[in-house]
């Protein structure tokens, strides 16, 4: 009994040593790779100091925003000048697949595709966004919200949302970056329908937008 156990242990011992040695080798390689990747990431961060882009809605003009009774068809004509600023001093940015959406009372009433944008380091780019058309609002709550805002000095709450894909240019290299999402909650006063052509739009206060990835 004792001899059989001793022989079995002796036969299994080389397999155990080989298995343990293989695992130890794998763990060592993985640990080294993680350490190297971490050090490279820290070095790149300290070298380039990446910062989030800044977005601001500088101007907005709501020249048309009406709702037909009973059918609740929203007719709109909205333009926004959006400023994008690249605060990075060593990273240029290329935006592509850029799209803008406008929301009212939680409902997306318009969508437009925008041209690509190239930004050098420290550069600010003004992106014009324009929406025009009509959209059927769903539900009486949205229509009630419109009537309420129309009574209150015709100031309407519109959400502008921008999505894009990003490429980062570092020296001569271009690498894919995170996909930014920009959210601009705007309060815009509608133009007076009786205003003569060429009249300046109502005052709009520049609005800081939220940017995340």
Automatic annotation (TrEMBL):
It holds the Pfam family LEA_2. The keyword Transmembrane applies. Keywords: Membrane, Transmembrane, Transmembrane helix. PROSITE patterns: PROKAR_LIPOPROTEIN. One of its GO terms (biological process) is defense response to other organism. GO terms for cellular component: plasma membrane; plasmodesma. It is a single-pass membrane protein. Its main location: membrane. Residues 82-171 form the Late embryogenesis abundant protein LEA-2 subgroup domain. This is Late embryogenesis abundant protein LEA-2 subgroup domain-containing protein. It comes from Lolium multiflorum (Italian ryegrass). The chain crosses the membrane at residues 27-48. InterPro entries: LEA_2 (IPR004864), NDR1-like (IPR044839). It is found in: Membrane. The keyword Transmembrane helix applies.
